[in-house]
Amino acid sequence: MTALASCAGRVFASTGDAVYMLSETDTSWEAASNGITDNLIGCLAVAGSNLFAGTYHSGLFLSTDLGRNWKNITDNIPTNTIRAIAITPQYIFAGTYTSLWRRPLSELIDAQPVLSETPTLAQNYPNPFSHSSTFTFTLPSRMRASLRVYSLLGREIATLAEGEYEAGAHAVEFTPLPSVPTGVCVYRFIADGRTETGTILLIR
Fold first, then answer.
1. pTM for the structure as a whole
2. What is the mean predicted confidence (pLDDT) over 85-90?
């Protein structure tokens, strides 16, 4: 393992072959390197809900969707070997063997993301799923929120979120027990007096 970082409730680890992610409620790692063209990832850094990865041979990469997809942002860095990354409110710094590169964060991401005025829940990913699926909800301010999963008969299967959460994005993972049957499940998200429901499909 070469680096660890926490982003929107997810733990990310870089190794000699990939970036992996682990939810706070899970005990297994999943590959999260789609788009990174180098197996040797040496460093990670976080700015808000955005994740940066430095590689030994392919430069600097950015993920804006919690590690699902990455894009190369090396641009004018004179070398593809990134040894270290640092983030300030205004800039990202990337260190190479011989130099230090700086670029305004505003050129890469929204430095001050605008939150919705109401709580929102993104569609879980992946869906359908066979092992685990991630829900991401965003809150405009500190408030109570809950997210539960039910069977079609109304039996509660899992509580994914319950309690007070800070403003911003929060990712939670649903990993059903082996006893949960294949098929459609119902989720219910409640925050700020609003309720949102939907369905997800478990396949095994």
1. 0.57
2. 88
Domains of the chain are 3-107 (2.130.10.30), 120-202 (2.60.40.1930)
**Rounded (to 5) percent helix, strand, coil in the chain:** 0, 50, 50
Average pLDDT over residues 54-62: 92
- Residue 99 CA to residue 91 CA, distance in Å, equals 16
Q: Concatenated DSSP letters for 142-201?
A: SEEEEEEEE-TTS-EEEEEEEEEE-SEEEEEEE---TTSPSEEEEEEEEETTEEEEEEEE
Give residue-wise pLDDT tens across range 159-185: 999 999 988 888 899 999 999 999 999
